[in-house]
Amino acid sequence: MPKVEPRGVRADHFRNTASVIERTRLYFEEAHRRGLMAVYGRSLPGRAVSLTAGRRTGHTITDYVRCSYLGLDNHPAIVAGAISAIEQYGALHWSCARTRLNFALIGDLEATLSELFAARVIAYSTVMVANMGALPIIASGHLTQGQKPVMVFDRLAHASLAFHKPVVAEETQVETISHNDVDALEQICRKHQVVAYVCDGVYSMGGVAPIAALLQLQEKYGLFLYIDDAHGISLFGHRGEGFARAQLPRDFGDRTIVAASLGKGFGASGGMLMLGTARQETLFRRYSIAHAFSASPNVAAIGAALASADIHRTSELQMRQRRLAERIALFDERIETDQRNTPLPIRMIKVGDELASIDFAEQLLDEGYYTSVTFFPTVARGRAGVRICLTASHDLADLERLCAKILSYGLQARPAA
After folding, report:
1. What DSSP line would sit under 154-165, residue for residue?
2. Which residues on neighbouring strands pair with residue 151, listed in sequence order?
3. Residue 206 contacts residue 343 (beta carbons within 8 Å)
4. I want to staple 357 with a disulfide (CB 3.0 to 4.6 A). Which of 45, 203, 332, 384 is the partner?
5. For 67-114, how does the pLDDT look when each residue is reduced to its tens digit (9 = 90+)?
6. What 3-state class would DSSP assign to 181?
7. How far apart, in whole angstroms, are the C-alpha atoms of residue 65 and residue 70?
8. Residues in contact with 46: Cβ distance below 8 Å, sequence separation at least 6, in sequence order
9. Cross-strand pairs, 315
């Protein structure tokens, strides 16, 4: 191991949980009371869900909440892959750290994903635990020649990234910059010898990271990049490499790591890290918390992911990518949002007031459309609204009706082109 230079930093200013709870309690209670959160149901074909609890029990709604952007989460081959894996292994889960005993099937999955995405892939049970294992190792300096990097987080980095700031701050200096502020990031690169930047590839509330500009900073200053592309995987690239990986060189070296989801667009379950070097892989397999002290994804998740990888090698992937693009284009013809004319499936209908946003989401649900009411701390106070996740399996006629309902409320509306 290289010698690592020590650096102490106060960590107590990176969490304010008590304040967040007090400021948001009213909105969460109201959203739960209206049946907009903690909803229970049974999956039906396509994006339909039959509700099984609450005052809407028995109602069938169209789901615009799930992030299965290619509609793979109920694909027959993926379901069959999960069942077959359980039958093959006669178990669902081994309660054992991965540094000890592993299902042979997880080795098959990681080898398959490594070939599919041209990287060294390690699979995890979720993206959050992948991040939990990765960020402290980056902060330690063992991936940057023994020098602890200044860890710079995008202000809108997902909660599964930002949550780890206090732990990272025990290792090294932590900074937060405005969203996609490349100039601010470059100023930090000029002042510090080693810098690591933590961001999303595709942001959960819409928008993307400026990958090309970040690669320029990497070329100029040696910037280390950690990109969580949970919402971009499978949607971009001939093999579904994702928004970030599709823009990286085939050999992306030792200064970039991409995290991604095996759920969402990929349609299975779990998370993964795409690493560039054998040395990185060795470090993560020995010292990543989730790898050393927890178990792998369960057998059903592994079998489902292998089935999805098979689909990613066929023309069906491109067909589903095209279907998604058609639905995004239709929505954008009807509704004006900040994300309009971007190739992303996430659209935010801004309302502003938190309670008014809850009203709007409830009205849509009563009409049969389940969307995500979104308020602080997910977005800034006073910028609440409704998030809509478009998928390749949404019915076009149903999507037309949703757009008409949104237009009838006069929120961020645009007449049909």
Report:
1. ETT--HHHHTTH
2. 174, 196
3. no
4. 384
5. 999 999 999 999 999 999 999 999 999 888 899 999 999 999 999 999
6. coil
7. 13
8. 71, 393, 394, 395
9. none
Domain boundaries, given as residue ranges, for the chain: 77-312, 315-392+403-417
Residue type, 399: L
Q: Over the stretch 190-219, which tens digit does the pLDDT of each residue have?
A: 999 999 999 999 998 888 999 999 999 999
Q: Which amino acid is at 133?
A: G
**Residue 338, pLDDT above cutoff 50:** yes
What pTM, to 2 d.p., does this model score? 0.92
Rounded Cα distance between 297 and 301, Å, is: 6
Residues 6+ apart with CB under 8 A from 159: 377, 378
Name the β-bridge partners of 176: 153
Question: Who's near 319: CB < 8 A, 6+ residues apart?
Answer: none
| Positive or negative torsion for Cα 181, 184, 189, 192 | negative
CA distances from residue 289 to 128, 135, 283, 406 in whole angstroms, order as listed = 12, 10, 11, 45
Which strands sit side by side in the sheet containing 346-352, from one edge to the other? Answer: 346-352, 384-389, 372-374
Cβ proximity of 127 and 230 under 8 Å: yes
* CATH number assigned to the domain covering 77-312: 3.40.640.10
Average pLDDT of span 311-340: 97
Residue 240 identity: G
d(CA 127, CA 123): 9
Whole-number Å distance between alpha carbons of 64 and 253: 38
Q: Please give the structure tokens belonging to residue 196.
A: 């690591």
Interatomic CA distance for residues 107 and 242, integer angstroms: 22
Residue 257 corresponds to which tokens in the numbers above? 């790591």
Whether residue 10 has pLDDT greater than 50:
no
Domain 315-392+403-417 part of CATH 3.30.1330.60: no
**Looking up tokens 């049974």, which residue turns up?**
42
